[in-house]
Amino acid sequence: MVRLRICGFAAVLSVVAGIAGAAVRSVEPLLGHRQDPALDNWKMPDGIWGITNGVLHVSGRKSARLDYLAYPQAKPVPGPDAVVVRAAGIFPAAAVLTLRNLQTGKSQKFVAKREADSFRFRTGLPSDELWQFASLSFKVDKKSSAPWHLAVSAIDAETVSSRAEALRLDVDTGDPIRVARPGQVRAQLLLTNPSDATIGWKGSCRMNDYFGATRSFLVSVEIPAGKTMCVPFDVPKGMGIWYVTVDLTADDGSVCQRKVRFAILDENKVGPPLPDGKFRMGINYHMRKVLATEGLLEKTLHALDLCGAKLVRVDAGKYNKVQPTGPDDYRWNDCDRMVDLLERHGLGIDSIVFAVPEWARDTSGKDLAAVGRKVDNLPARRGLYRDFCERLARRYGTRISYYEIGNEVDLRVPAVYGPDEYVERIYDEAYEGLKKGCPAATVMPGGFAFGKIAPQKGFEERFLTLAGGRMDAHPVHNHSPFYRYRETLGVHFLDERRRHRISVPWFANEAGISTVFGMEATAALTVWKKILWAWGNGSRDYVWYNLRATGWKPDDGEQGFGMISADFQPRATFAAFSALANLVSGLDLEKVPVQTDVRFAYQFAGRKNDVARHVLAGWDENETSKAPV
Question: Which residues pair with 82 in a beta bridge?
Fold first, then answer.
């Protein structure tokens, strides 16, 4: 039996399962740092929101609405029986709460009037479903124009469940991404009881790694209401990802199963950026979405350090972010901060620099409903985008490794622009401006979605005909399994380059595979296969898509691309990328001794951590082993 000690309360979400028993009421906090007003005095047309010392301040004369950020959406909780908004101040007449079902995506609205110092929404949702906080609106009496102000101290979801279902599980390795180091002796499970009653649980904990090794031990705990019990365990010896499953029975006979994961990884030392000519293993990083929230920014940068990335694809120089309101309004602070931080972490930068601000959009003759993403519009007049790009390149020069003009431009529908318009009105202006600002800048088109079903067939071929001689790298995207990736790029893409006599290096600057529908093991193997094959076949660098999951839905393909989950649990792809970076990052490809339809081998050599290293990495597609050699 394991020894136990009590830690401070910290409610953690996990999937609920169990049978009905004596009901208990649990509390999950919904007021967190991921809401839109994370920035002080974040202004809205109908009110002002701001957070000070954890208290949410809102004021206005009419209604005011708080929406949760779309990325990565609110952390889901078991369906609440009620949601309570606790506040102080001059109260508006009523409040409207919107919750979204994680699985179906459908929203439900609830209305509440003031009760003492709170609004209590009687939601009555089933606790075996997961729901997300979507929005909160405060409504005033139509006859009133008096100002009002609230200081919201808490937004709590109250869930009624069996005693077993109240349990929340997490794992603590001493690292925010749940990574342990080889030789680390102890870690601990965190079992939380967010309910209003003391509950006892008994059962077992089973751990298994990617290769099938298992460990198990018994668990017996009694946890007071609102407390967390820490259950220490010996860290296993095996490297890579470890999956933890806890099966427990509560003291009323109800049962639950909880799952969490951690990884054991070698250290990837953070150093200066790799010198020119070195192949860089990179990751797509939605940095701007976490820039305003220090805790999330630090976590994501730490995750990049852990996995050994040397290049990131970000949107540091987006036109609409730097010049949001007019031609004389330049806001460089966020861009400066992103470039400075990434350099400090030894990361090269592939920056997407296109997205037209509203004031500069050409809407003449456009079907705006078909355009959809209006930031993809053409600039309103010639010279606007060229002037912006010149200023951008003068400011950052070669600190930005790649200036990428758009993203998957061949997926834009014809209502936005065709290849001729893209070249004449966007790409050529960007190229001219960037080269004028910094002649040594590496300029390339927005990565082509080669191999996807694009609304404009032949877009890339036409671009290469018109502007193939005016690019410094040839980017390509492909999220297929390895066998299709190798066929699509190795045959069709490389043949296209030969036909158009493209001599600049190609660049796999967005390539991954989703982990949904049981594909996590395959995705981990694909990390090695795609990166090694691209390196061995002339790709200048490589960017895996994506660092962090964009949401919480387990069967959403886009959200499955994250190497870490939305709540910062490592996936097998994270462990695979980290292991490969630790093995070969910074080395040179010496030769490709074997590359057939089924067998692949790549030989590397160089110095790493002041030690000479020779590596032969390869695999056989006919083998059933889970790991490359």
Answer: 122, 158
